[in-house]
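The instructor's notes for this session suggest beginning with a concrete chain rather than abstract definitions. Hand out the sequence below and ask the class to guess, before any prediction is shown, which regions might be ordered.
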Amino acid sequence: MAINLASEYSPLLDKRFTQKSLTDAWCGHDYNWDGVNGINVWTLGQVAINNYSASGANRFGTPQELEDEVNTYTLAKKRSFAATLDITNVQDQKNIKKANAVLKQIWDEQMVPEIDTYRLETWANGAANVTINSTALTNSTIIRAILTGGSTMNNALVNRDGRVCFVTESMAVETKLASELQYNESYTSKAIVNGMIGKLNGMPIVAVPDSYMPTGIEFMIKYKRASADPTKLKMLRAHTKPQGIAGTLLEGLVRYDSFVLAQKAAGIFVYAASGAVATPTITISSHTVTLATTTAGATIYYTLDGSNPKTSSTKATYDSSNKPTSTAGATVRCYAAKSGSLNSGIASAVDA
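After discussion, reveal the predicted structure:
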């Protein structure tokens, strides 16, 4: 007779890897979407600064009514899921599938990475500063690149506190091996305590999976309040007595979105080896505006009123056969976009 060995199913599930959100701590929450699907945000215009005159009627300068700009941010992401746990299957699988545990796994394993990826892509596409360098960063060049990105933001008068540098896991290796940081105690010891790979000039460096970051981006510096990132609804529920089903009905719904604020686009700096559209150049001659980008097939969008062309309702599409005309003192701003590529940075010029 043969020897028939017994087998048994383990009471433990072999779960896939999950992790907590890597972007939650760096989302902007200054604005409230309670009770509405979109919000309108005012931005005040700027006034002329004059030399004071001790004589005449308008000694402070000629007063002009203060203008303003309105940008609308409409929440669009509504993501949901549904699954059933039939009672007959649950009974015959030793009750291994427990509703609350299943809901948590779906959230941690699928929804958290989706939201993180969406935020990083949105932030990168809204950035005012995008640097492209086809030579990949190494442990001998990455620290200088990050410091240069921070300097670019400093020159744009971006707040120096509340910044974070997201690096891909590939670049995290180069960052950790950088000679500038090997003997930096705040980089090596505090990194473990804070759950990040380190700090540079007081700025946390957070590593994200390569797949989270838009293709070609090596790192991104973000000022926390440069974006508005609402999560309006997070619903995870288990119906224990659903009609027509002998068992449990699992449902999930999350309403979220992310927006780079029109006046804070300079609060995001992107460094890419590839995958990004080259920032256009602006030439103004006799008030005729010429725009150009070195990325073939890219479309250029512009404004003539100084507003952010990535968000403004006044933006127009550039046509080289019908070039726009500006006025003296006007600020021209533009960016370029191409399907499948990251948006360019924003170029700006004043019609002298």
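Then share the key points. The first strand starts at residue 38 and ends at 44. The chain has five helices and 19 strands.
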